[in-house]
Amino acid sequence: MAPFKVGVVGAIYSWAILATFGYARHRFSTASANRLVSACNAVVITGLAVAALAVHASDLTDRPPLHPMIAVSIECMCAYLSYDIVLGLVAGFESAPGPMLAHHAMGLAAEALVLVYGFGGFSLVVVHLAEGSTPFLHLSWALLKFGYGGTRLFFATGVALVLTFGILRVILPAWVLFGNLLTESGTAAWGAASALHEFFVLVVVIFWFLNCFWFVKLLRVAMGKASPHHEHGLSRPSSGSSSAGSLSGVSLEPGRRAD
Questions:
Q1: Cβ–Cβ under 8 Å, residues 242 and 224
Q2: Cα(64)–Cα(67) distance, rounded to whole angstroms?
Q3: pTM (two decimals)
Q4: I want to staple 69 with a disulfide (CB 3.0 to 4.6 A). Which of 52, 183, 240, 245 is the partner?
């Protein structure tokens, strides 16, 4: 098997990430610029995953070789994770640098191994759908930051965040694990690559438990039972209230605050 090399798509996507961050960094803070890059990446990755599942669903499998659309999606995700790791190491992680670095390193390793060996393509593209919740997280943060926390748009964005997070980051990964990876047919698809299969399962399990933990925190904030920065959680906007709860007050990435 040839060693992993970032292809043309990965190189172009890396340039696009750096260009977007550089443009935004001249106009906003580093945190805001990084959120913009994260949101844009989430739209691209989710779009590629949806396209692959919708157009080539019958051709997708965890057996090699990878479908070209999956390979493109993985190269893009590898480029983004590499950027985020480097940015964290250079600019510094806001808190808990160890867990943050481990989280991204494990994700990057899983993506790269799938790209190299070709196993796990279908499972990975389903996992990529989790990125569909990310734009709502950053949009809720932006609305709150610019004084729109008491609006109906903020409330709608918060509801969308809770729903997409629960479906795409909690329910779907559980299906990937128990409805595919850990089944007899799902395990057989990996053939002799049992060690690779076990590592991939381990990564999905860890990420799934983390997502469940963050989802509980998100629900507590949304229900008004807890909020790191505000007295109330997500509440319906009213003309008599000048403040609103913050869904974005919960960091949905390990080691990062929603500042």
A1: no
A2: 8
A3: 0.83
A4: 52
- Tokens at 197, concatenated: 């299969």
| Token reading at 16 | 């696009």
Q: pLDDT band for 254, please (50, 70, 90 cuts).
A: very low
Do residues 125 and 49 touch, judged by C-beta distance below 8 A? yes
Cα(68)–Cα(80) distance, integer angstroms: 19
Dihedral angle of Cα 165, 119, 40, 139, to the nearest 10 degrees: 10
Per residue in 106-129, pLDDT tens?
999 999 999 999 999 999 999 999
| DSSP 3-state of 7 | coil
Nearest to residue 38, comparing CAs of 83, 72, 69? 83
For the stretch 208-213, contacts whose Cβ atoms lie closer than 8 Å and that sit 24 or more positions apart, written own/partner, are 208/170, 208/173, 208/174, 208/177, 210/103, 210/254, 211/130, 211/165, 211/169, 211/170, 211/173, 212/170
Judge whether 70 and 50 are in contact, CB under 8 Å.
Answer: no
Count of all residues that appear for the chain in the document: 259
Quick check: 155 and 183 in contact, CB under 8 A? no
CA–CA distance from 23 to each of 12, 16, 27 (Å)? 16, 10, 7
Cis amide linkage into residue 64, ω under 30° from 0: no
State the DSSP string of 40-89: HHHHHHHHHHHHHHHHHGGG--SSSSPPHHHHHHHHHHHHHHHHHHHHHH
Helix (H), strand (E), coil (C) string for 196-258: HHHHHHHHHHHHHHHHHHHHHHHHHHHCCCCCCCCCCCCCCCCCCCCCCCCHHHCCCCCCCCC
**Both tokens assigned to 178:** 């128990």
234-248: pLDDT as tens digits: 443 433 333 333 444
End-to-end CA, the chain = 44
